[in-house]
Amino acid sequence: MKKLYRSSKDSMLAGVCGGLGKYFNLDSTLIRLLFVILFFVGFGALLFVYLIWIFVVPEEGDVK
């Protein structure tokens, strides 16, 4: 079973996009670009979702 976590190695801010990249088997740069594009297109709430993920999704070393 796959688990979602924040990446400690592929991290720019908090590792959320790196963890999503590993979970969906995509390059984390594509996920980061998607976040930025969606933020500027009008989904400003995506920033709040990102902030929530920082506190809800565990870091890679904390996952057992």
From TrEMBL:
It is a single-pass membrane protein. Residues 2-60 form the Phage shock protein PspC N-terminal domain. Keywords: Cell membrane, Membrane, Transmembrane, Transmembrane helix. Coiled coil: none annotated. It holds the Pfam family PspC. It is found in: Cell membrane. InterPro entries: Phageshock_PspC_N, PspC. The chain crosses the membrane at residues 30-56. PANTHER family: PHAGE SHOCK PROTEIN C. This is Phage shock protein PspC N-terminal domain-containing protein. It comes from Gottfriedia luciferensis.
